[in-house]
C-alpha cells in the first residue's frame, strides 16, 4: 500500500497490517504512527475456573465430614452464617475426588450435633474477630453465639461492625476487646461484672455521659484511643474523675496531672 501525502512523503504499511508509518523523502524517517482497530474477538481468553477452595466458601469447620474439633480448640474460628444457597447445596458439594465435603446429619440431630461441636459454653478464651457480618441475619446468628459464652475470661470481638450488645452478658469476662466497632455509648456495652480490662479503641464514642456505668466493675485499664471523645479538653482528667479506681488509660498509667481536675460549677457526675 502507498498513498501520496505530498511530493516527498508517503505512507507505508508496517509489519502489522493494522499499523501504518508516514516517512519523509528517501531517508525513511518515521514521522507519525497510526493504528487502526482490529477485532480481537477470536483471541478472547476463556474465563478461569473457580479455585479449588471455592466450594468451601460458606463452610464452617463443624460442617465438615468426620470433624471432631470443638470450638474450644480453635483460636479464631469462622462463625459467620452463610446465605440461603448454602443449605440448597450443603449435601451435594463434593471434593476433587467426588467425596462429600459436609457431614450427612440432618434435621434436629444436625442442630444437636452442631451445638455440641461449637461448645461455646465451655470456652475460656474466645476470639470471634473479623467475621465480616455484612447482613442482618449474620449479626443475629452472631448474637445467638455470644449469648452462649458464659465461662470465657478473655473475649476478643475486633472489627465486627457491632453497634450495641445490650442484651449480652459475659459474667466471667476479665478482658474484653471491642476494638474497631461502631459503639457510640458506654450504655451499649455488654454486662461484665468481673471486667478488669476494656479495649474500646477505634469506635465512635463522643461523650463520657454513661462512663459512670463502668464504675460498677473492677476496671483497672481502659483504652479509648482514636474515639472522638479522646480529643476533647481535659479528657484524661475527666475519665479518672469519673472512674477513681482506674489505674491505666490508653496504655498510659495514671499520672499526677490526671488527678488535677475540678468539674465546672453546676456540672454533676453520678458515680454508682
What is the element layout, followed by pairings?
Blueprint: E1 2-4, E2 9-13, E3 19-24, E4 29-35, H1 84-89, H2 107-118, E5 125-127, H3 136-146, E6 154-156, E7 175-177, E8 197-199, E9 221-223, H4 235-242, E10 248-249, E11 252-253
Parallel strand pairs: 5-6, 6-7, 7-8, 8-9, 9-10
Antiparallel strand pairs: 1-2, 2-3, 3-4, 10-11
> Mind describing the biggest β-sheet?
7 strands, mixed
What share of the residues does DSSP label as strand, in percent? Answer: 5-15%
Q: What is the CA-atom radius of gyration, in angstroms?
A: 32 Å
Low-confidence stretches: none
State the helicity in percent bands. 10-25%
pLDDT averaged residue by residue? 87
Global structural class: alpha/beta
> How many alpha or pi helices?
4
Write a concise synopsis of the structure shown.
The protein has 272 residues and is of the alpha/beta class.
Based on the model shown, name its key terms:
272 residues, alpha/beta, flat
Plain-language structure description:
- With 272 residues, the chain is α/β, with parallel strands linked by helices.
- It has helices spanning 84-89, 107-118, 136-146, 235-242, and strands at 2-4, 9-13, 19-24, 29-35, 125-127, 154-156, 175-177, 197-199, 221-223, 248-249, 252-253.
- Helix 3 (136-146) links the parallel strand 5 (125-127) and strand 6.
